[in-house]
Task: structure prediction
Amino acid sequence: MEIEEEAGMAPCDDPAKRDEIDADAAAAAAMKEVHRLVALAGEAFATREYAAYLVRQPDGSIKFERLKAGPGGGVGPELDETGLDFSKVVGYFHTHPGGELTSAINSWDWSKVYNGIYERGSVDGDMSHLRMYVGMQSISYQAVTNLIHVWKGGNWGTTLPIVKVNPDAMPCGS
Result:
């Protein structure tokens, strides 16, 4: 009977899946905010990179924080770490102005990401709960597609496995 109840569990009732759903939704919300800021500035998406931390809130939800634009020219922003509790950081979101995923993998100083967010956010060296999101815009012959990719659990800097995130993802409880 207990196995049947677990098998029928809704994804948001499973803490591990809830974290993944909420982190994906926070990245999607950050991407939407980037698009709003880009439109307000009258710029193209490819003008500059944006970045934010994904942080667990006191109520257990996950939200993006400290979203900041870079100076342009493919240079990422320096995020403010003042007072940031890295034990609450569950991921990092950044946009990449080009639509090519391979260039996003190697974009700007990932060593800062590895050594900063991921090492300080690890739990006894375990980084499996951390995620790195890259939002980009792919422009093809007839369409503009907004994409968000996520690397999970320490496979940063590799091309596989990469998961695409629903750009309209919603958090649990919404």
Observations:
- Residues 15-41 form the longest helix (27 residues).
